[in-house]
Amino acid sequence: MSVLFAIILFSLLIFVHELGHFVAAKLSGVQVNEFSMFMGPLLWSKQVGETTYSLRLIPIGGFCAMEGEDGGSDNPRSFNKAAWWKRLIILVAGAAVNFVMGVLLMVLIYLPAQQEIAPVISSFEPFCTINGPEGLQVGDRIVELDGERIYVQSDFSMLLQFNPGNTHDLVVERDGKKVTLPNFHMEKHTVTDEDGVTRQLYGMNFTIEELNLSGRLRYAWNQSMDTVRLVRLSLQMLVRGQAGLKDMSGPVGIVQQMSVVADSSPTKLDALMNLLYFGGFIAINLAVMNLLPIPALDGGRVVCLLLTTAVEAVTKKKIDPKYEGYLHSAGMIVLLAFMALLMFKDIFVLFKG
Questions:
Q1: What pLDDT, on the 0 to 100 scale, is given for residue 13?
Q2: 352 with 257: CB under 8 angstroms?
Q3: For 130-153, what is the mean pLDDT?
Q4: Interatomic CA distance for residues 33 and 30, integer angstroms
Q5: Is residue 219 a contact partner of residue 152, using CB atoms and an 8 Å limit?
Q6: C-alpha 317: how far from its chain's center?
Q7: What pLDDT is stored for residue 91 in this prediction?
Q8: DSSP strands (E only) in 155-296
Q9: Alpha carbon distance 84, 90 (integer Å)
Q10: Is the pLDDT of residue 64 over 90?
Q11: Which of 65, 73, 148, 324 could form a disulfide with 34 if both were Cys (CB 3.0 to 4.6 A apart)?
Q12: What is the pLDDT of residue 1?
């Protein structure tokens, strides 16, 4: 069931993404030649007005083919003839719809929540050494750690893992005012619980807060923004060499992870909610990743659009769109090769395990 859910989820994400481009193009007066679900050989198609609606064989991707999108066209309703701001709206519409879908899924997940663990210190353990007049105090709300905002309480431990060490820059809210604790020394202590499990703890406990409707909506939004930030942190780790191909997953790996999470859930309802969380997480990830300034992605097209618009405004000369088409075609080849590499890596790991 989790595999079926994953297939439906990916199909839905693709559909709403391309639907965003499609609706924005139609509202902007740009001619859409074909609106397709999936890629590869044609399975079914229907011509409605100027647009062909199609279903293709390979259940990966999809496209909204606009007139003049990747080359010159004399059609007055082609993409390259539209005003630059209309083209910008069309390009970002897909990612925008994915982001909205992700936020709505987060709202759906957290709407039943009655409580949250807030990043507000409720007490300290006897062994704790980071409390006191010059340190942290009961009632402090932790709002920043090493320059990163604390959206939800779990951010605190996550960001500490991203920034190993005993010295951190903290910002807390105390009695309605922000207090900065630069180069704050935070020392872990080894603690063995009653079950004999040994853990490293700082010794602070956090507050459980009741949630009303506005609190649940705020919590869902904070989880969404936290997901956006996690994409950025992951990319930073890749650039710095702290993560590599082995830490990345394609559709096959994601489906496997979803299956594991669903199977380990105590009830069917928990499994459904966990899968929906995965859906919201992936939708927001897709929105952010799609806007990266990489050729073939919408973000790369946005960068090219802004650059060519600026150059044409200065030089008063039209840049031949075929050159941008070459760039995005090359980018698409590299992107597809990378996706194939991820897929084979995921399949190898799956069978090896």
A1: 87
A2: no
A3: 90
A4: 10
A5: yes
A6: 38
A7: 96
A8: 167-174, 177-185, 189-192, 198-201, 204-210
A9: 10
A10: yes
A11: 65
A12: 65
